[in-house]
Amino acid sequence: MRKRGTPPNRALRARRPPEISPTVRSLPLAFSLSSDRSMASISGTVTATSVRPRLTSRAPVVKGFSGLKSVSFSIQRNGFPSVRLQAAPRRLRFQVSCAQAKPETVQKVCEIVKKQLALSDDTPVSGESKFSTLGADSLDTVEIVMGLEEAFGISVEEESAQSITTVQDAADLIEKLVEAKSS
Amino acid sequence: MSWLLRRNMLPLHSNSLARRPFASPLPLPPASLPSPRETHIWYVVPDELKDASLLYQYMELLSPCERQSVLRMNGERLQKGALLARALVRTTLARYTDGRLSPKSFKFQKNRFGKPEVEWDKYDLWAPPPLQFNISHTSTMIACGVTLDLPIGIDIEEKQRKTSNNILSLAHRYFSPVEVAYLKTLADPECRQSEFIRLWTLKEAYVKALGRGFSGTPFKDFTIRLEASNSKQVTGELKSDAPSIVVEAVDDPGILMNRWQFALFELNNSHYTAVCMERDVKNPADGENNSLKLEVWRTLPFVEDECVTETDAVKNIIR
């Protein structure tokens, strides 16, 4: 409850919830302690995802795999989600439906997007970020596409451009086009 | 916004409601329905919202799904904008129901192309007005257009908006050849910049009126331009000498798509605004001015409404 005399904005910002938001979808892929230990043999790259809202500092957060397309969530009683992957002995198998872009590509896309949308450097932008939730309107989106074309020396078809909704989508498409160009 | 997050997880006790004076917000003044050729526009300027308790009132109006969408936005400014947008749609539509529907009670669905529309319940003794709406926002304004039973699209852009890419590069890529040629005739870069933005808003408004999305109606496939008055198909009283905004398919130049009418104007001295509305063929005007009529209100829902139609807030209208 707001104390008398506290300016409203400060009261709004004062509380940062330690809990997780009601929506499961928007959560980063967080692993609880036990599952983390068993995944010592994880290979593959880890990219930073936006950790929103923030988890408590105790929980070791593996912030997400750029290659992870299909995951199942379960909510434990304490409210923290755990993630189950289909684990094969000695090797983790990820369910992926198509090739995923390199982290450097994702990073470069993030930079271009941040620049176009005039986001501050500490704004978390990752592969999972949707252009719409970053505040991009249709003109921003076409400008981002043109910026990407220029940066990567590719040409994006209108139909493909329409299917891009996240940073990851853009990075994947770029790599596909770059590969097609060089082959 | 994180405060709101917490609050959503608390059960609503009656004593907690009593603490909040906004439990029953001021009723919205009812508004008369738009007439057949009219678009009503209600706009909010987010920076005018100084009272944080209003944000809680607005949050109360949203469906759980909408609340989650708002909270998914990246950062407080975007969350506030998304919240205001939903609150604006709901409160605006409620005004036209003569007090029978509260902003909270509206349900929305998407048409088969993804355009949002109202999902009306069936009532025994009352037929809700067949309102259609469309919304557009920038970081400094949110606008909602409403018509009676006619498809509508609205788009706003800040007048000062600068593009990262060169105007002609953008135009070559996304506009039709006629539009590119027009922009090329403008030597002054600032003029070219503003004309690009105005043309962009018109094209966006048209695509949104059609409701088929950016991919369903590629910008390159149609031209929007001014048509001289002597080839206008309808005659108006005062405006018969003024050129009108028309749309034609690139593949079918010269065949104007008369089904659609436009208005382009400046709103609040800050934004170019384009409205595209389907022409009402059920009520054709005889010898009357058939162009799109506008009524515009500046609003801060539950706080104040101001009709700005005949004021300086709405100017340089081209239809």
Automatic annotation (TrEMBL), chain B:
Transferase recorded as keyword: yes
Superkingdom of this protein's organism: Eukaryota
InterPro entries: 4-PPantetheinyl_Trfase_dom, 4-PPantetheinyl_Trfase_dom_sf, AASDHPPT_N, P-Pant_transferase_sf
Annotated 4'-phosphopantetheinyl transferase domain residues: 151-237
Positions of the 4'-phosphopantetheinyl transferase N-terminal domain: 57-142
Keyword Membrane: no
Pfam families: AASDHPPT_N (PF22624), ACPS (PF01648)
GO cellular component: cytosol
Annotated keywords: Transferase
Protein name per Swiss-Prot or TrEMBL: holo-[acyl-carrier-protein] synthase
Enzyme Commission numbers on file: 2.7.8.7
Species classification: Eukaryota, Viridiplantae, Streptophyta, Embryophyta, Tracheophyta
A GO MF label: holo-[acyl-carrier-protein] synthase activity
Gene this chain is encoded by: LOC105039270
Enzyme class: transferase
Alphabetical GO biological process terms: lysine biosynthetic process via aminoadipic acid
